[in-house]
Design a protein that fits this description.
Blueprint lengths: L1 E12 L5 E12 L9 E5 L8 H4 L16 E5 L14 E2 L4 E2 L9 H14 L5 E7 L1 H12 L4 E7 L7 H16 L12 H15 L2 H7 L12 H16 L2 H12 L10 H5 L5 E7 L7 H10 L4 E5 L7 H4 L1 H15 L10
Parallel strand pairs: 3-4, 3-7, 7-8, 8-9, 9-10
Antiparallel strand pairs: 1-2, 2-4, 5-6
Helix pairs in contact: 2-3, 4-5, 4-8, 5-7
InterPro entries: AB_hydrolase_1, AB_hydrolase_fold, HAT_MetX-like
Pathway: Amino-acid biosynthesis; L-methionine biosynthesis via de novo pathway; O-acetyl-L-homoserine from L-homoserine: step 1/1
Subunit structure: Homodimer.
């Protein structure tokens, strides 16, 4: 495992017509590119994750997992706007020599995919064996597979959609309302909006899990208790945990990018855009996902040519795509074997 940084010194045009004067992209690589250059697994990460996929997706990525560095050359790039080494709102604006903060230009999911394309070109990667992503990561993978279908051999989309829903946008806006209510957000300081970000994370958790999840993990056993409930402590803890590793400005811009996700924009229709995908595609949904319900993945599988749809049973809600790795590994392994008959797929644990 190693982390790298790619500095693109030219102007990076954004979908909305604005520009970034150069982009730095942080990325992790695991394993080695084989002589045929046909063992590349490219991972697109979700909202607050980073490029160290072995850290946040164990069970699917690891030494003894389905995607392992002995067999594959695994790449995960930190996305624009994220504070884990790639150009983001806390980066220095070359025009002012001060951090961008709220002056950072708004970007889209399509821009995130364009940055992946730049990095792939820099690394000399012409073909990606498997492109995989869940949630916002799935949105990126989808955009990339539409814009450069010739590069992607197999596409795996988990708990994602072709257009962000009004339900998802409402959750994101509620989180941004919490951030805006924290007046320090407008102070242009590295920790500006921290209290609002804590509340935003608490709101987000309700969309990531379910009634049943909280009932199983946060249920009280003391009938005499009247305060300091487990569920309250959990919300506070998770909010503080994100504040320590993220920032409100990155969260603000990334949530807006997710809201604007629409693969049909400028491509006549969503259906027509999805039909441009030529990769062998597996679409995975989580049965209890309330944020990206199964009908959104069924829609993808219906309109992506010859795509296969699988529903994973889980009571973890949207977070099931990160947790149910045993089931997901089994389904992906079977799909890869079917997509390339005669070739073996590394055993997984």
């Amino acid at each position: 495992m190693s982390i790298h940084k790619f500095n693109y010194t030219k102007t990076f045009p954004l979908e909305n017509g604005k520009r970034l004067k150069g982009v730095q992209i942080a990325y992790h690589t695991y394993g080695r590119l084989n002589t045929r250059k046909d063992n590349v697994i490219w991972v697109c990460h979700a909202l607050t994750a980073n490029s160290d996929v072995f850290d946040w997706w164990p069970g699917l990525f690891g030494e003894k997992d389905l995607f392992n560095p002995q067999e594959y050359y695994i790449i995960c790039a930190n996305i624009i706007g994220s504070p884990y080494g790639t150009t983001n709102p806390l980066s220095i604006n070359p025009s002012t020599d001060q951090p961008y903060y709220l002056a950072f230009p708004q970007f889209s999911i399509r821009d995130l995919a364009a940055a992946h394309e730049l990095l792939a070109a820099h690394l000399g990667i012409a073909k990606i064996k498997v492109l995989i992503g869940g949630s916002l990561g799935g949105q990126q993978a989808m955009e990339w597979a539409i814009s450069h279908p010739e590069r992607i051999e197999t596409l795996v989309l988990l708990a994602t959609n072709a257009q962000h829903s009004p339900w998802g946008i409402a959750f994101n806006e509620s989180q941004r309302l919490a951030i805006r209510a924290d007046r320090t957000f407008y102070a242009n300081k590295p920790h500006g909006g921290a209290k609002g970000l804590k509340v935003a994370r608490s709101i987000a958790l309700l969309s990531y899990r379910t009634y049943e999840t909280y009932g199983a993990t946060q249920l009280e056993t003391d009938a005499d208790k009247i305060d300091d409930f487990k569920a309250s402590s959990y919300q506070n803890y998770q909010g503080e945990k994100l504040v320590k590793r993220f920032n409100a400005y990155s969260y603000w811009f990334l949530s807006k990018a997710m809201d604007a996700h629409h693969v049909g924009r400028g491509r006549n229709s969503i259906e027509q855009a999805l039909q441009a995908i030529t990769a062998k595609t597996l679409v995975i949904g989580i049965s209890s996902d309330q944020l990206f319900p199964l009908e959104e993945q069924q829609f993808l599988a219906k309109h992506i040519p010859a795509a296969k749809f699988i529903a994973i049973n889980s009571f973890y809600g949207h977070d099931g795509f990160l947790i149910e790795t045993k089931q997901i590994s089994k389904e992906i392994a079977a799909f890869l074997k079917q997509a390339a008959p005669g070739k073996t797929v590394q055993a997984f644990i």
